[in-house]
Amino acid sequence: MEISPKLKNRLEWAYCFIIAIVLALLFRYYIGTPTVVRQPSMYNTLEDGERLILSRWTRTVKGTYNRGDIVTFEAPSKPVLTAFEADMDNPVAVYDYEPEGIFAKFFYYVLETSKTSYIKRVIAVGGDHIKIEDGKVYLNGEELEEPYLRDGITTESSLFTDITVPEGYVFVMGDNRPHSTDSRSFGCIPVEKIESKVWIRFWPLNKFGKVE
């Protein structure tokens, strides 16, 4: 059956469109993606409405995350654990949700339309001992210098505030400590749940540049 030139032209455009969509999804998942700040927990390092470029490269190459990195990650199933629920010998966040079916997994892990993500700063990595006392953070026995905090901000204790971070996990907190639900409440985050590192702020233009 011979295809008419008009139909052939339409098919070629359809193929190009599909290929472009696939390439865009691959780039978004493996390389980087834009996002908009919608949480107050990183104020004033990051403010509501600012637009960022997130780098997925560390996840793609299974690299390491360092203290001070600002990362996004899948929100734990339980953002606040009680003393009864927490295992202080294994102070890690609870993840008990797994989408069922190929389409549900595609929307959750690739399009991320049904997933809640948090943005926080890595404070400690596997093997580090962290202690929060009298409004200050101590890392491996020494007071942690935190120049990114606003003047007057203190770090209040919660459930997980005197622990050793397990290997393969990170301890995260928001810079806006009084308004941040973080590892103090839900425990350490497994590295495989980290989605990206914050790389560049491109809006507003007067703040354009790398975010640290």
Plain-language structure description:
There is one protein chain. The protein has 212 residues and is of the alpha+beta class. The protein folds into two domains: 1-30; 34-210, Umud Fragment, subunit A. 20% of the residues lie in helices and 27% in strands. It contains four helices and twelve strands. It has helices at residues 5-30, 57-60, 102-110, 183-186; strands spanning 32-36, 51-55, 70-74, 117-125, 129-133, 136-139, 142-143, 162-164, 169-173, 189-190, 194-203, 209-210. Strands 1, 2, 3, 4, 9, 10, 11 and 12 form an eight-stranded antiparallel β-sheet that branches. The protein has a four-stranded antiparallel β-sheet with strand order 7-6-5-8, with no helix packed on it. It is elongated, with a radius of gyration of 21 Å. The N and C termini lie far apart (61 Å). The model has no long low-confidence stretch (mean pLDDT 94).
Topology:
Elements: H1 5-30, E1 32-36, E2 51-55, H2 57-60, E3 70-74, H3 102-110, E4 117-125, E5 129-133, E6 136-139, E7 142-143, E8 162-164, E9 169-173, H4 183-186, E10 189-190, E11 194-203, E12 209-210
Antiparallel strand pairs: 1-2, 2-11, 3-4, 3-11, 4-9, 5-6, 5-8, 6-7, 9-10, 11-12
